Amino acid sequence: MDYDTVLQGKYPAKQHARRVVDYIRSKVPGATGILYLQSRSTKKHEDCDQEEPFRQRRFFYYLTGCPLADSYLVHDIDADKSTLYIPPINPEEVIWSGLPMSVEQAKAKYDVDEVEYKPVDINARLAHIASLKTNPTVFAVHAIPDEITFLGFDEKDFKVLREAIETCRSVKDDYEIAMIGKANNISSAAHRAVLEKVKYAKNERELEAVFLGQCIGRGARNQAYDSIVASGTSAATLHYVKNNEPLDGKLNLLLDAGCEWDCYASDITRTFPISGKFSKESREIYDIVLKMQNECIAVLKEGVLWEDVHLLAHKILIDGLLALGILRGDKDEILQSRTSVAFMPHGLGHYLGMDTHDTGGNPNYADPDPMLRYLRVRGRLPENSVITVEPGIYFCRFIIEPVLKDQERAKYIDSAVLERYWDVGGVRIEDNLVIKKDGSVNLTTAVKDPAELERVISES
In 10 A of CB 401, how many CB atoms? Predict the structure, then answer.
C-alpha cells in the first residue's frame, strides 16, 4: 500500500459513523435521535499557566478525524448527517497562538457534512434538534460535563455508543491501516538510527534521544507510548521506565518504541547486542524468540483463534529451552505445569490502532490459567484487524526464582545451566500485522535478522 497516496484523502469519519449506527441498531432496534461526542478540553497544569499536552479523545476522533480541542459532534442518526462544532475565533488569543482553524478549512479537511462555530448555548441548540424529532434518544459516552442537560430527549443512553465504537474500532479500513503503516515506517527508520548509534552511546537516555529526534524530524512529534530503552538485565523488566542507566558492561539493549501518526500508533520492539556481536547465550535465546515470532506470524489469518497462536509460541519456547538444557523433562508436562510462563509471562500481542493496546480484545484478567490470564486479545481474529506479535524470553529473578522453590515446577528447570543466561536479561521481538483472509501483512520493516543487526551496528 502506498501510504502517502492513501493519506491524501480524508479520514473516513462518515463511514465510521454508519458502522457505529448499524451496531447500535443491532442492539437497540429502530434507534433514532443523535450521537453526541465532545473532544477533550484544553487544560492547564496545576500552579502553572501552561497547558497540559493534548491528546484527542479516541471516541470523538473515530467519528470526526478531528484533533481540535474544545469541540463537539452531533451526528443525526435519521438524516445520516454529521455536524462538527469548533471553537470560534477569539481575537485576544490570536496574538498569542495564531489563527485557529476556520469553519471553511475544517469543512475542507474533515469528513463531516457541516461545520459550525460553537454556539453560546449548546443546550438550546440540542433542545432545538430534539424538538424536530419524535421520541428521540441521545447516545453519548463518558465525560459529559454537568452543564450539558440534553433537555428534550426522551431517552439518554450512555452505554451502547461506547460499546459500539470500541467494537467497530477493532476492524480497520485502508485509511487507518495507512496511518499505522506510516507510523511503522517512521519508527522503523528511527530503530535503525539507534542501531547505528548504540556502539558509541554511554547511557540509555542517549538512545532514547536518537529515537525521538528521528521521529520528530520525520513529522511524527507524538509517541504512541513512553519508550522502553532497557540495557542488560533491565530488559527482563517488561515495562522498564528508567531509561537512564549506563551501557558499559551490558550485553544487549531492548528497544520498545513507536511513534504515532495522526493519533494512530505503531509498536515495535527490537533486541540487539550493544557491542555489535551477540554473545553465544544471547544469540541462542534470540534465535528461539525469532523462531517463535516467525512461526506464529505464519499461522495468522482471518478466523484464527488467538489463544492457539499464543499456545504455539509457548510450545516453541519449550522446545528451544529444552534443546539448550535450561528446561528438562517431558515437554507436554512442562506445558501443562505452566513452567514456561516463568520465561514468557505476558501475552503474545494486542490489537493496535488509536491506542497502543487497542479496543476489542475482550481480555479476561481473572482467568485462573496463568498462561492465558494476561492475554489482551481473546477469540478469533477478524479480517483487517491489526495485531502485534511480540514473543519474548526473559530471565527475571523475581519470576523464575520462586519457581525454583516450587517442587512441582523446579524439577523442569536446570538451575546450573540457567546460571549462564541471567546476563542475557530479556529478548523480545515485536512486529505489527494486518490480518487478511488467507494470511497477514507485516507493516514493520525494522531490521531483525541477527546477522543484519550485527552488521549495521558493527559497520556504523
Answer: 11
Q: What is the pLDDT of residues 134-166, one digit of tens each?
A: 999 999 997 688 889 999 999 999 999 999 999
The grid coordinates listed for 254 are 531492548
Cross-strand partners of 252: 273
Cα separation, 104 vs 367, in Å, equals 52
Instruction: Indicate the average pLDDT of the chain.
Output: 96
> Do residues 389 and 433 make contact, with C-beta atoms less than 8 angstroms apart?
yes
Q: Distance (Å, rounded) from C-alpha 229 to C-alpha 231?
A: 7
